[in-house]
Each structure stands twice: as structure tokens, then as C-alpha cells.
């Protein structure tokens, strides 16, 4: 068996040749045009990023390295007795493009276990932060604090890095950093919400299983953790958090700086924060009526939200134009384990009604529930407070974003640097047409 590093070496060589060929022979070929609406509209629809980690088809949904969500869940190896695959297997898939064998995933599990011990100074920094600090801020601080561990930064300072070998140092950083993220997240959870009563790691457990164990939450939360970390690991690297991580790394910042930036990028209510907002919206509705609403009551609540000039959180998407398979997969999990949960019942009722309300607005391009619509309900079912939700999303994006920046270095992508225009220039451009 080839180890993950040797396998990557082989694949990097092949992809480098492909990129060189494309640049050399077809560098001038146009793959699209830019409109003023796209320039003003957050680059919506513009294909200006390149990644093989995942691809988002607007109608079919996400494919990780070519595999649909269902295929990934079916094909990746699972821990004994578990319903969901190893997150380590998803990492292997995103990194190499191959579904790992049991032996191949075992190598990653062993590396992750060996590297998951968090330096003590990180805990000291976290302990000294105000208890009011948001948990995702604490996670970003913890990751930033560990920057001094970066093998890439050290090698750069010693003039050891070349364009060709940069990815190997990045690889070391990625393997050192990723396994620590769920450990730190669970520590923050217990510190903030469980009176700092920490649960030591269980060396027998995998990435997702050990996270659930350290959180102190019983089965099937281990399987939900594994599932959630897979589902949100990447979305064609174009979402704010993944894109931020990539952009920061493009200036040859190391994995620690880059991921800390991505964690901050996830926080906004239109992105990772939407999980919290969606749950709040459902809770408010339930509190107001004290029962599952009728169709009319739910419709009225939607109109009240929209007429107040607010978005209905958990619906819509910047790219997807159909139902999100990541929503559907969590729905299936909910049907199995949350059938008696009132909030979950509300998610199902809303699924049938809210899209029809949103369809009244022709400007809304996707009226369907997105991934964040349901995750908060499941997190809260397991007792997790709302402001911790983005930390859970952060653990997921770490898997995809770190795979991405490894490949960015491997394929020698340059620093990201788009050009800008002024409004005046745009106006003149139109007048001169
Ligand atoms: N409720 C009300 N209005 C909406 C919604 C919604 N759920 N979704 C889109 N719109 C509005 C949007 O604000 C825009 O209004 P205006 O023309 O006045 O500026 C119009 O519909 C067109 O927006 P779209 O082109 O359909 O969506 P866009 O790509 O701009 O934004 C989101 C995508 C996801 C930011 C947007 O759908 C939204 O704000 N949804 C609610 C928040 C949310 O659930 N975010 C989570 C996204 C997933 N994630 O994991 O990050
Ligand atoms: C995500 O997975 O981060 C969200 O669906 C947002 C996006 O892809 O734009």
C-alpha cells in the first residue's frame, strides 16, 4: 500500500503536468464573460476559482471528488458498529481523490491520533479569555496561537521552501493542525457550558467519535458528528470561509493563519451564522404559538418576517437552484432519531410551506431549505447552545479548506489578486457602448 504522502506525490505530479499543459497551450481560451451585475453582485456565477476537492452542481448539489453525498456515505469505510463513515476517510478522499481502503484509512486514523495532543499553552490562552467571548472567536484564537508550531513558516524563514516543495511543508502543517481542531472545540464547549469539567480524549476513538465522547454526548451523536463533518467539509471552496482560507494561503501564509481567517469568515449570519438564525426563527415561532402551527399560522409568520425586511433564515442559496442534498441527508437522520422532537416536526411542516411563500418573490433564486435550516435543530436536540453551532461548522470546513490549501501549494497557484473598477468607470463604460 502507498502511504497518503506517497500517493499524493504521484497525484501531484500528474496534476502539475495537466495544469502546465492547460496554461501553456490554452491559457488564452475564454471560459466566460463578466457582466456589471456580477461585478457588483459578489462575483455571483463567475467561475474564477479552480479546485478538484469538490464541485457544486446547481441542480444536483455537491459532489466530493466526483461522488455524491449518498455515494460518499455508502462507499467510505465506517468504524465498527457505526452508521456513518470515518471523517478521516473523507479527508483521505478530499486529499487524494480516492475512496480509501480500510488499510489506507487506518494510516490516517493513526496519524491523527498521534498528532491530536494540543499544546498546553493553548489551554492556558483559552482559560484566560473572558467567558463571554464567542466560542468561534476562541477557536480562531487557539488556531492563531498555535501558528508558532508551523513547519511551513519555519522552513520559509530558513529559506528551505521552493515552489516545488512548498506543499510538503504544508502537508505537515495540515496533518498537525486538523486532528487538534475537534479536541480544542470540545475543550471550549466544556469550558464555556459545562463548568470547565473536561473529559479527556479516548485514544480508541476516531475523529468524530472522540469529539462526541469529549463533548459528553451519548450515541448516536457520534454518528451525527461524523455525518455533519463530512456534509459541510466543502462546497466547491467558493463559500466565504473556504474562499477566505484559500485567499490568505495564496500569499503563502501557513495553514494556521489561513484557517484562523477562514473561521472568522464563517461567522456571519448569511453564512455559518445562519444555523443559529434558523433555529432561533423556528424557536420563536414555537414560543409564539406554543404548538406546531397550522398552514395559515406559518404563512403569516413568514410574511411577518419578510414584511419586516428580514430574510427567512435557512432558505435560499447563492449557487444551488434545487433542494440541498445535505439538508435531505440530515432530514433522514432526524426522521430516524428526532421524530418526537417538536422543533424537528416544525422543520418538516416548514419544508412543505415556506418554499411556496418564497416563490412569490421572483427575485429569490432558490426557495428551498439549505443545509443550515435543519442542522441547528439537530444540534439543539443534543443540548448544544446556539452560539456553539459555528464551531461545529468550523470543524467541518477545516477538513475541506486544509485539503484545498494543500493542493493550492502543490499546483503552485499564485497569490490571489483580482482587479477593481470604480463606479465611475462602470458608468462611463456603459455610456460609451
Ligand atoms: N428570505 C428572504 N429573502 C431572500 C432569501 C430568504 N431566505 N434568500 C434570498 N432572498 C432575497 C435576497 O436577500 C435578495 O434580495 P434583494 O434582491 O432585495 O437583494 C434576493 O432574494 C435575491 O437573492 P438570491 O440571488 O436568491 O440569493 P443570494 O445569492 O444573494 O444570497 C443567501 C444567498 C444564502 C445569502 C440568501 O438566500 C439568504 O440570505 N438566505 C438566508 C440566510 C441563510 O440561510 N444563509 C445560509 C446559506 C448557506 N450556508 O451554509 O452558508
Ligand atoms: C456552505 O456550505 O458553506 C454553504 O452552503 C454556503 C455556500 O456554499 O455558499
Proportion of strand residues: under 5%
The spatial strand order of the largest sheet comes to 1-2-3
Q: CATH homologous superfamily of the largest domain, by name?
A: Citrate Synthase, domain 1
Q: What count of helical segments does DSSP give?
A: 21
CATH architecture of the largest domain: Orthogonal Bundle
Structure, described:
This protein is mainly α and 433 residues long. It has 2 domains: 1-25 and 50-268 and 387-433, Citrate Synthase, domain 1 (Orthogonal Bundle); 274-381, Cytochrome p450-Terp, domain 2 (Orthogonal Bundle), CATH 1.10.230.10. It has helices spanning 4-26, 36-40, 69-75, 87-96, 102-115, 120-128, 135-145, 151-157, 166-177, 180-193, 207-215, 221-231, 240-250, 255-265, 274-289, 295-307, 325-337, 342-358, 371-381, 389-410, 423-431, and strands at 54-57, 61-64, 67-68. A 3-stranded antiparallel β-sheet has the order 1-2-3. Helix 7 runs antiparallel to helix 14 (255-265), helix 14 packs across helix 20 and helix 15 packs across helix 18 (342-358). The model has no long low-confidence stretch (mean pLDDT 97). The site of D-malate has 7 residues, from loops.
Amino acid at each position: 500500500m502507498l502511504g497518503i504522502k506517497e500517493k499524493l506525490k504521484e497525484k501531484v505530479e500528474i496534476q502539475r503536468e495537466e495544469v502546465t499543459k492547460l496554461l501553456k497551450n490554452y491559457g488564452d481560451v475564454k471560459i466566460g464573460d463578466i457582466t456589471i451585475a456580477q461585478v457588483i453582485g459578489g462575483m455571483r456565477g463567475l467561475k474564477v476559482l479552480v479546485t478538484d476537492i469538490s464541485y457544486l452542481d446547481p441542480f444536483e448539489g455537491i459532489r466530493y471528488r466526483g461522488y455524491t453525498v449518498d455515494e460518499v456515505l455508502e462507499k467510505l469505510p465506517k468504524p465498527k458498529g457505526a452508521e456513518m463513515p470515518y471523517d478521516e476517510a473523507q479527508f483521505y478522499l478530499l486529499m487524494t481523490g480516492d475512496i480509501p481502503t480500510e488499510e489506507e484509512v487506518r494510516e490516517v486514523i493513526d496519524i491523527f491520533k498521534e498528532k491530536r495532543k494540543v499544546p498546553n499553552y493553548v489551554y492556558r490562552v483559552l482559560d484566560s479569555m473572558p467567558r463571554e467571548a464567542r466560542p468561534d472567536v476562541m477557536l480562531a484564537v487557539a488556531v492563531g496561537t498555535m501558528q508558532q508550531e508551523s513547519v511551513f513558516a519555519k522552513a520559509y524563514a530558513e529559506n528551505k521552501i521552493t515552489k516545488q516543495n512548498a506543499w510538503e511543508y504544508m502537508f505537515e502543517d495540515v496533518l498537525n493542525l486538523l486532528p487538534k481542531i475537534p479536541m480544542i472545540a470540545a475543550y471550549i464547549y466544556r469550558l464555556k457550558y459545562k463548568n470547565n469539567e473536561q473529559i479527556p480524549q479516548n485514544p480508541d476513538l476516531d475523529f468524530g467519535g472522540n469529539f462526541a465522547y469529549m463533548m459528553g454526548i451519548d450515541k448516536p451523536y457520534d454518528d451525527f458528528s461524523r455525518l455533519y463533518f463530512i456534509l459541510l467539509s466543502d462546497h466547491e471552496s467558493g463559500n466565504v470561509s473556504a474562499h477566505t482560507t484559500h485567499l490568505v494561503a495564496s500569499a503563502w501564509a501557513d495553514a494556521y493563519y489561513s484557517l484562523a481567517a477562514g473561521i472568522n469568515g464563517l461567522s456571519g449570519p448569511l453564512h455559518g451564522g445562519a444555523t443559529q438564525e434558523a433555529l432561533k426563527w423556528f424557536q420563536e415561532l414555537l414560543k409564539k404559538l406554543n404548538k406546531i402551527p397550522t398552514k395559515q399560522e406559518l404563512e403569516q409568520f413568514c410574511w411577518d418576517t419578510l414584511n419586516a425586511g428580514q430574510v427567512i433564515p435557512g432558505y435560499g442559496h447563492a449557487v444551488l437552484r434545487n433542494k440541498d442534498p445535505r439538508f435531505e441527508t440530515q432530514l433522514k437522520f432526524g426522521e430516524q432519531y428526532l421524530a418526537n422532537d417538536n422543533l424537528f416536526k416544525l422543520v418538516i411542516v416548514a419544508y412543505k410551506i415556506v418554499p411556496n411563500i418564497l416563490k412569490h418573490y421572483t427575485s429569490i433564486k432558490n426557495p428551498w431549505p439549505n443545509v443550515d435550516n435543519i442542522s441547528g435543530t439537530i444540534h439543539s436536540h443534543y443540548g448544544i447552545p446556539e452560539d456553539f453551532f459555528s464551531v461545529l461548522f468550523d470543524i467541518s470546513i477545516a477538513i475541506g479548506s486544509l485539503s484545498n490549501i494543500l493542493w493550492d501549494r502543490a499546483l503552485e497557484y499564485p497569490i490571489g489578486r483580482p482587479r477593481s473598477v470604480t463606479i465611475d468607470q462602470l458608468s462611463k463604460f456603459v455610456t460609451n457602448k
